[in-house]
Amino acid sequence: MNVRMFSLMVGIFSVLNTTQFFIFDLNQKTHICYEAKFSIYVDSKSELVTWTLFHRANISTGLSLTTIIIGCFLFYCIHKNIYMGLLIYAMWIITYELINFSIVLLLNGIIKDHFKTLSYLHWIFQISHMLLHFFCLPFIVKHAYNLYKESQTVGRKRRHRLCSTIAVNS
After folding, report:
1. Nearest-CA neighbor of 73 among 90, 89, 95?
2. Can you give the pTM of this predicted structure?
3. Which of 60, 59, 66 is nearest to 14 (CA)?
4. Coiled coil located at which positions?
């Protein structure tokens, strides 16, 4: 298998994996009982934590949909041999995982003691998600580097051919 094929597999993996974790995030229960609205989180005095908890579904939706779109953009860039698109994908995955890690870190601090085992599940999901994404990044970067080197070689040949044509016409 060549680096291009690995990059395509990374794109497929990224879209499917992001979709899977997006579904997990949307189906996560934070309240139990309909009348009492018993929350698994304690009340926090931090505005950032409260805002993150309140807008978690919107943040997850925005990040996941952006990642899926950028994953599809990765397919296009691999097909058209655009190395800059592969680098954009790599930078986005790093940003995406750091934001998700920050959210898990913030929200695990306010989980009630009765639900602490749930925080371990959050950590396992987050760390496995990060490891899987970060394991794939070297293949993307290597393919981008190969495309960059290839474009430099083609540029030199084109300049050499253009200079030869101008010299013959003179």
Report:
1. 89
2. 0.81
3. 66
4. none
